[in-house]
Design goal:
This protein is α+β, with helices and mostly antiparallel strands and 90 residues long. It contains 3 helices and 3 strands.
Length: 90
């Protein structure tokens, strides 16, 4: 289900933009490749990652951080539900 393409990355970015979190790509030496500031609701991902690395970092964040889906569009809600189901099975 997970495709490591720029289109899938864009779908993830759009879904996060519709939530209450802000996604930023910054330079940094994060040990995990990303930094999550929960109090300010900011997700920061290493901008030098490849597309696959960015997708993996976003999926890791989504696995550990529930998003408020009240403002999701139908497509984003469906994607979020599919990702949640995939994580339960894994």
């Amino acid at each position: 289900m997970i495709k490591y393409t720029t289109t899938f990355l864009t779908k993830l970015e759009d879904m996060i933009a519709e939530s209450d979190y802000v996604l930023r790509y910054e330079k940094g030496n994060f040990k995990s490749g990303y930094c999550l500031l929960r109090e300010q609701k900011i997700m920061i991902i290493n901008k030098f990652f490849t597309t696959e690395g960015k997708i993996n970092a976003l999926l890791e964040i989504l696995k550990n951080t529930p998003l408020d889906g009240t403002r999701f569009t139908e497509k984003s809600k469906k994607l979020y539900d599919e990702l949640s189901q995939a994580e339960v099975k894994a």
